[in-house]
Structure formats: C-alpha cells, structure tokens
Amino acid sequence: xxxxxxxxxxxxxxxxWDIIVIGxxxxxxxxxxxxxxxxxxxxLLEQHDFAKGTSSRSTKLVHGGVRYxxxxxxxxxxxxxxxxxxxxxxxxxxxxxxxxxxxxYDWWDGPFYGAGLRVYDMxxxxxxxxxxxxxxxxxxxxxxxxxxxxxxxxxxxxxxxQFDDSRLAVNLAQTAAENGGVLxxxxxxxxxxxxxxxxxxxxxxxxxxxxxxxxxGRVVVNATGxxxxxxxxxxxxxxxxxxxxxxxxxIILDKEFLPGNxxxxxxxxxxxxxxxxxxxxxxxxxxxxxxxxxxxxLEPRPLEEEIEFILxxxxxxxxxxxxxxxxxxxxxxxxxxxEPGGGKTTSSIARDHFLVVSPSGLVTITGGKWxxxxxxxxxxxxxxxxxxxxxxxxxxTKHLRIHGWLKHVDRKDPLHVYGSDEPFIRHLxxxxxxxxxxxxxxxxxxxxxxxxxxxxxxxxxVEDVLxxxxxxxxxxxxASIECAPETARIMAEALGKDDAWAQxxxxxxxxxxxxxxxx
Length: 519
Ligand SMILES: Cc1cc2nc3c(=O)[nH]c(=O)nc-3n(C[C@H](O)[C@H](O)[C@H](O)COP(=O)(O)OP(=O)(O)OC[C@H]3O[C@@H](n4cnc5c(N)ncnc54)[C@H](O)[C@@H]3O)c2cc1C
Prior knowledge:
Helix 2 runs parallel beside helix 7 (165-178) and helix 2 crosses helix 10 (373-388). This protein has helices at residues 3-12, 26-37, 66-70, 74-90, 110-124, 137-143, 165-178, 228-235, 304-317, 373-388, 422-431, 448-456, 462-469, 472-475, 477-482, 484-495, 499-514, and strands spanning 17-22, 42-45, 61-62, 96-105, 133-136, 152-162, 182-184, 187-195, 198-206, 212-222, 243-254, 263-266, 275-280, 283-287, 291-292, 329-338, 353-357, 363-367. It is globular. A hairpin with a 2-residue loop joins strand 8 and strand 9. The strands form two sheets. Strands 3, 4, 5, 6, 11, 12, 13, 14, 15 and 16 form a ten-stranded mixed sheet that branches. Strands 1, 2, 7, 8, 9, 10, 17 and 18 form an eight-stranded mixed sheet that branches. It is α+β, with helices and mostly antiparallel strands. The structure holds flavin-adenine dinucleotide (FAD). Flavin-adenine dinucleotide binds at residues 22-28, 45-48, 52-55, 57-61, 63, 188-189, 223-227, 248, 288, 298, 333-336, 366, 368-371.
C-alpha cells in the first residue's frame, strides 16, 4: 500500500465510487474488505491513522462473550463464536487459541462457570477451540503460579481467541487494497454532498497537505465509532445523538506477573464487571473499566481512579502485587455504546451492533465488537447495495484469507505477526544488516520493521509505527519514547523528509506517549 498512489487514484476517479466508507477502524475496514471483494468500486477515508480509535485499544480478545451467556443472550454468543472461528481461519497468523482460567474462590459462584462454559463449548460446535474443564487447586497454581492461593478451591479452564488488533486492521486495509479498494489515512471527511435530499458523496480534507477534495459516491457508509453522531449531524444538523461513549482502561505489566500461557478471567469485580489478565507479546494486559465520558476523543485519557481500580483488583487475585511503578503502559479506549431508542434499527434481532439507514440514504453501522466486524460489514454492505441500486453480488468474506495469512507461524518469533510477509522483512535485513538491530533493548522490534511499515503499510508518522504497526507504545511506553529519534531518522530517510520533520515527529510522539506513562 502506498498513500501517494492511493491519492492519485482518488484524483483520477472522475465518476462515482460505488461505496465510500468513512472511518478506518475495524468496522470501516471490514466494510471496505467486503465491498471491494464483492467487486464494488470502494473508497475508505480515515481522518487519522487506521485503527487510531477504539480498534487499537481493545482487550485483544476474539470471543463469544462469556458474560452475554450469563445474561442468557444465546443468539449473540452463537454469532460471535461463529465469527471467532472464521477470524481464526482467515487470519491464523494473528489470531491464536488462548486458555483462560476462572479461579474458584470459596466466596463466589464457581458452579455457573462449570456448566455455563460447557454450553459455551457446545455453541461453538465444530469451530470450538477446545473443551472447558474443571481443574484442581494444584493444576490452577501450576498454570498461574502468581495467583493468590488463600481461599482458592480450584478453577475452570476454557478457551477463546486472542489477537493483535491494530495489526489485523493494517492487514484488513491491505486485503481491501488487494481487492481493488482505495484507502486513505489522514483524510478527514468534513461534510456530506447532497443531490436533492440524498447523500451523493463527501467533502474531505487531506490532513497532510490541506487539500480539499469533493468525492462522489453512490452510497456513503458511516463507520466512525464514537464519532458516529458527528457524521449523522453532517447529514441532518437536527439529528438526535445516539452514541454514549464509555471508557475502558488497560494496564500492561511485565510477564513475571503472569508467567505461563494461561490468562485469568475474573467474572465479577466489586462493581460487577469482568476483569482479564491476558498474556500478550510477552507482557500481560490487565483490564478493564467502564466509565461514561461526555465527548468522543481520539486520545482518551485514563483517569486516576481507573488505574487504581485495576491495580486494586489485580492485588486481590495476584500473590505478586503490581504497583504503579510496575506499569509499563496504560491506555484507554472508548466503546461506542448506542443509546436505546435513538434512531430506528433495520434489524429486529437482538444484537450489540446497530445499523440504521437515514432518509438521505446514509448507512450507519456502529457498536458491536472487533470479533463481529465481518458480520457487521456484511450487513452494512447488503444494505448499502440496496440503497445505491447496485447490482447485487454475494458476500465472499466468510472464507476470504486476510493479508499475511499463514497457517503455521512460530509464535516465539516476534516477526510472526507479519505472517506471509515475514520473509520480505528478513530480505530487508539481508540487504542492509544494520536493519536487523533492535530498536530498543526492552522491545522486540528491529529497525527493518520501520522501513517495512513506511513502504508497505502506509505508516506516515512515528506514532503510526510505534503505536500501531508495532505495539511499542503499549508494551513499554518509556522505551518507545527512547527509540522515537531512531524511528524518526529511519522514517525520514524512507519518506524523503528532512531533519526538521524528524525532530518535530519526536516532539509530537514524546508528548503523546507521556500520556501512557504513569508515575
Ligand atoms: C476497552 C475496550 C476493550 C475492548 N475489547 C474488545 C475485545 O477484547 N474483543 C472484541 O472483540 N472487541 C473489543 N472491544 C470492542 C472493539 O474494540 C470495538 O467494537 C471496535 O474496535 C470498534 O471499531 P469501529 O471501527 O466501529 O470504531 P473505531 O475503531 O473507533 O473507528 C472509527 C474510526 O473513524 C474515524 N473517523 C471518525 N470521524 C471521521 C471523519 N469525519 N472522517 C474520517 N474518519 C473519521 C476515527 O478516526 C476512527 O479511526 C473493546 C472496546 C473497548 C473500548
């Protein structure tokens, strides 16, 4: 993928795009993959970088949602379990099996999780990842030696999926592009064009050059997550607000807090939430919280009380108690929760996603979760095709391999996340051995990945590379700040930028990454 070539394609396209997608998170990228692979002329516009919003800030689980099962929402669980299986088949280089242990202390309801998880296994059917089972206290402690053993009776082990969210987003963008789609990051939609009362395209501003573009499309899909209302209001200034953002925070700890490969799932915290501690890229991701916030933001800030809440609960279950000084990074994401009654859904089935077609023909899709992005995209494109009067073509994403697809990868090798692209990164090192050097001694990334991200994954800034092409910002925010100057130098060379650009990048990145460090 190359941004200049993409921009050129937009300028050359004098007619109408079949489908214009606003938003380059999981939902919008899913729509772009679906539409492009059905053969429609597809354009996606993202105001910042792909997955800059919620889609790089998840718990990194591909899951049916054990908690929905408890609420008795079987159809939702069934759909998500099916999607979990498809995601694993279509992106095996990024989606893995993950064992979870629900510790059973004498003060809570172990029995539900025994029987409930058997139902979970059954619902997954042939796409199941492994049967759940009760385990003894000894086996529990063997799997998670850092678990607090006072009052521990045993546990239940079950399986779900785990993935790297922003890497999958980049691979989805590549998949859409390989199917003929055009995708632009740093292209903000500022208005909708109308023909009579109907939406006929978008006005967009290139965030790099300031150039304004007027782009015609037969149908426009609003996939802007927590920003959904701003696009609905471009369509109708009187539109009722439907999104109520809710913030979720995670902290990252070193592996020593969660040695082994098993994750912890605490079904009920003091405020009734689910808490996870999950091994990820040789660290542990621990979270999350649920805090209503007033306004959407691309860079939400964790609250002190959210950090304290996570540390407090971690201390209740871990014998090795994490302190603030142990936190390598803290990050926040916003759930686009849809307010009940705001707008008309086209679907009567109980779902946690929301699809609405405005009288102007604008198709809005939001809510849901990463796990169900493919199904959400399919529904959005089905609706968009009808609105636009396009020739109907069947969805092909159920068995569409995502860019990088590789069945067997060595998960101990940090380059495994590139799947089938891995050999190309190794070639970069063969040509220029210094690119094989680590960016930082505390991070698993080599310099060649910076070059690769610029040349093939449309990375434009140091933040794109350290935040989403690699996960340095999340794995160790301080270390990532230390390697920003070298990252900027390599990027400047690859992009043909000068020293002033590199320095400015380092300044901007450092300012941003400080927000992920806690003192
Ligand atoms: C704390 C937390 C944990 C989660 N954990 C999980 C999990 O473990 N598993 C799971 O399956 N799901 C999880 N989810 C849910 C999942 O992350 C989201 O459902 C999903 O990422 C939403 O994707 P999206 O594309 O709708 O929104 P976003 O990722 O926010 O994408 C919307 C995009 O639209 C862009 N945009 C906005 N306005 C404009 C404009 N005017 N022009 C151009 N672009 C624009 C934004 O920049 C943004 O990139 C979690 C969510 C949270 C908050």
